[in-house]
Amino acid sequence: MISLRGTKGQGRKRVFGERGSSAVEAAFVTPLVMALLFGIIEMGFLFKDYVAVGAAVRAGVRIASANPRTPTFAQMAANQVAATGGAMSFSSVKQLWVYKVDPVTDYPIGFTDFSGCTVCVKFSWNPNTKAFAPTSDNWSYTTQNACSSVSIGGPPDRIGVYLLLAHQSFTKLIFSSINIPDASVLSLEPMPVLEVCK
After folding, report:
1. How many whole angstroms separate alpha carbon 85 and alpha carbon 97?
2. Burial of 49 by CB count in 10 Å (0-12 exposed, 13-18 middle, 19+ buried)?
3. Residue 63: band (very low, low, confident or very high) from pLDDT cuts 50, 70, 90
4. Mean pLDDT confidence for 113-125
5. Model confidence over 130-183: pLDDT tens digits?
6. Which of 23, 64, 142, 180 could cysteine-pair with 77, CB 3.0–4.6 Å?
7. Could you say which DSSP state residue 92 is in?
């Protein structure tokens, strides 16, 4: 008669050994899977804000360029940024400018980057009114050139909208905060010849 006692014991040992190795494997793999999962979530939120910033500045500059020599051209652009960028947190907006564009550099007049602007309207988010409010206004609508041709004083000025958002990290594992800048530029829509365009 064959004894099964030894075989059963060996089988039991093997099962316990496999359970132990599975636990060790899980201990190594679980943090990696969790890090990958949180990384995907983090990049998703970052991409959402990146897309929202881009869409907001493009919408804002379209409104600003379509309203040359209008007293509220900059406020209309800021309002459009707020209406279009609803996916982002406006309390994290560090800069919002509507600026006159240097025809050579595509940056604000007198600058080769976005370190500042002199001919522009700057805004900040007001949490009480839930709207952008101007903090400085150095660009009067009366100085805008919206003439259609060189013979009558053209070409028209170029206008830009610049937005800088401080994206706050969701997990704080990869970074705590990262800046998302974007700008869009268009020429002012030419005004009819019979109107004052300059």
Report:
1. 15
2. buried
3. very high
4. 96
5. 999 999 999 999 999 998 876 677 689 999 999 999 999 877 777 889 999 999
6. 64
7. G
Residues 182, 161: Cα–Cα separation, whole Å: 8
Does the predicted TM-score (pTM) go above 0.85? no
In this structure, what DSSP letter does residue 41 have?
Answer: H
DSSP string for residues in 138-158 = ---GGG----SSGGGT-SPPE
Q: Is 95 helix (H, G, I), strand (E, B) or coil?
A: strand
Distance CA 83, CA 45 (A): 19
Contacting residues for 68 by C-beta, under 8 A, at least 6 apart: 141, 144, 146, 156, 157, 188, 189, 191, 197
Q: How far is CA 68 from CA 81, 84, 177, in A?
A: 18, 21, 37
* Residue 64, pLDDT score: 97
For 11-15, what is the mean pLDDT?
Answer: 52
Amino acid occupying residue 59: A
